[in-house]
Amino acid sequence: MFMDLYKRCFAKITKRISIHSFVAELTAKYRKLRVRRELTAEQKREIQDYYKSLTGHRVPLIWHKFLYSRRNEYSKKYIPLSLYRTELIGRMNQYWMMDAYADKNVSDMLFPDVTQPATFIKNINGYYYAGNKAITKEEAENICSNLDAAIIKPSRESRGHGVRRLHVEDSVTNLDGKRIGDIFSSYGQDFLVQEFIEQHPAMSALNPTSANTIRLLTYRSGMDVMLIYAVIRIGQKDQVIDNESSGGISARINPDGKLAKYAYGAPGNDMVEKTDVGVTLEGYEIPNFQAVVETAKRQHYRLPYFNLAAWDFSVGKDGTPILIEWNANPDLSQSAFGPAFGDLTERIIQEAYTKPNTRNEYW
Predict the structure, then answer these.
(1) Cβ(123)–Cβ(190) below 8 Å
(2) Residue 308 pairs with which residues in a beta bridge?
(3) CATH number of 99-109+199-350
(4) Residue 325: CA atoms inside 13 Å, Cβ hemisphere, count?
(5) What is the CATH number of domain 118-195?
(6) Residue 201 and residue 318: Cα distance in Å, rounded?
(7) Which of 98, 99, 63 is nearest to 84 (CA)?
(8) Which sequence spans correspond to the domains of the chain?
(9) Rounded CA gap, 174 and 144, in Å?
(10) How does pLDDT run across 125-173, given as a tens digit for each residue?
(11) Burial letters for 231-246: b for 16+ Cβ neighbours within 10 Å, e otherwise?
(12) Can you tell me the distance from the alpha carbon of 327 to that of 218, in angstroms, rounded to the nearest whole number?
């Protein structure tokens, strides 16, 4: 009994510290914005009344101020990161299952009927594999001794951390001239080497050096899987990855598969109308968009522990949807899209609060 009380108190204190940290981090980003807007007293009351009716609690207002300032659009439905991270994601998804399911090395086993980049080798918990066959490190080095266009990346990281373009000739890589075995050693364990995919020309035109990806957020409620939003993530000129941390930008994809007028990068890089290579965003059509959406919705049924899932797809040169990765604990693209859950906000939050918060066990 004492231990249960201790755990509850510890979780409560840790949660409060996390909320404070989230607020401080976004406050710093808010101060970097070129235009900083304040909420009116009426808007503040509307937001607090809205969230108290859904959750029973008030919310920090910094997320509404930040997004109102970035997008020049006010909405009471913006999702505060503090609420999302501490309450919603742990209720929608089984937190204790996230790490194993989201490991990129098991993606081909989870989604065997979806096109994915060919994998040359995997390292799982320090063991090497080619296909489903266990191999030695020396065999893995031999498989990767001559690669024209490949990607090496950690299998349990997100946000593009550790993703690098890889070219290997006679076991010597383009990465500071190091040998492939030394590159493997630098990654330690839990990584993979995949082919660098050839994108559809319309995707490549946005930025030729990066795998520009379609980010979808889907939500499962019973037997219904719904698309919550879709954005395009576009890399900075000469960059390999399309993440905001590397200068990438994100723009909303409308239901007809065409891009909205503006894209957003890091705070201060707001409302961009063209990509780094000069492509105008508004009205730009994403190839085979509906097929990508339907593919993600079908695959969500393979994830019974997760009602919320984010998907990163590319589009192959022939229009085939190519699954790059999925995420059980995604960030929300509210700068690019707007209120993350849109018209489903009330339904999603109300359904979430009928479930226990599995996040509480991991503070």
Answers:
(1) yes
(2) 219
(3) 3.30.470.20
(4) 23
(5) 3.30.1490
(6) 9
(7) 63
(8) 18-95, 99-109+199-350, 118-195
(9) 13
(10) 999 999 989 999 999 999 999 999 899 999 998 777 889 999 999 999 9
(11) bbbbbbeebbbbbbeb
(12) 11
